[in-house]
Amino acid sequence: MDIMNADFLIELIRTTTNMYAHGWDERNGGNISVLLDEKEAGKYLDLTNVIRTIPTGFTAKELDGKIFLVTGTGKYFKNVQYDPAKNLGVVRLAEKGAKAELLWGLTDGGSFTSEFPAHMMSHVSRLAADPESRVVMHCHPANLLAMSFVHSLDEREFTRTLWRMCTECVIVFPDGVNVLPWMLCGTNEIGEATAEKMKTARLCVWAQHGVYGAGRSLDETFGLIETAEKAAEIYLKIAHLPVLNTITDGEMRLIEKRYGVKTREGYLD
Q1: Which is nearest to 144 in space by CA: 175, 179, 172?
Q2: Which residues form the catalytic set?
Q3: In the chain, where are the structural domains located?
Q4: Could you check whether 1-114 and 115-269 share the same CATH topology?
Q5: What dotted CATH number matches 1-114?
Q6: pLDDT (tens digit, 9 = 90+) per residue, 27-51?
Q7: Which of 41, 142, 59, 143 lies closest to 100, judged by CA?
Q8: Inter-residue contact 269 to 249 (CB < 8 Å)
Q9: CATH number for the segment(s) 115-269
Q10: pTM beyond 0.90, yes or no
């Protein structure tokens, strides 16, 4: 079967194209990794044919043997739809995650995203919290990024501000938003710090940089980031104005009850 007909590849192509159109992934900014079902991947790939092996620079024994569809380093999201095999890759982790076996893609000799360690460490955290988690997505939404310049980076306050901007926010991310102060990207250190944050929330803002999101599907993860970004946009539109009305904690409790969600402990008064 032709991998170009695989649902997982079609969906990633659509998602990268949409993210670029939203302005979240300028130039080669942003990266995505999707945990694939081995049986599904095997329909399209010869899993015994390893094209080449790429060192990962980290270990994650929990992911040994797992297969991921990932974006490539230095690749532009706007180009994925025109040449998926050059801009994407399917890799299988081996030797407790120390190596990645390339099974498809990265045809120009390139490698997976430079944020691969952060992605894989975050997958470990999210799978421990939710065995159905499949996607880690990193991008640079302008409003969340701008908010990190002018708002306290206290996670409770950052979350509460976003929750108050749109009624749907407390429904979409009741687990809140975690925040990291500025750190050097592309390192194991920021990967480890992000993974720690991912233990308690599916969203982690990298101050003055962007956001990490995780979910069970590309649609869910995209929608998670999209909702938080919309809330940040509203905040920036009103932050300099006197606020006459807001969503109260009591009203958010009503949302909890009506939609069967549970907000993060201690985040509502």
Answers
A1: 179
A2: 115
A3: 1-114, 115-269
A4: yes
A5: 3.40.225.10
A6: 999 999 999 999 999 999 999 999 9
A7: 59
A8: yes
A9: 3.40.225.10
A10: yes
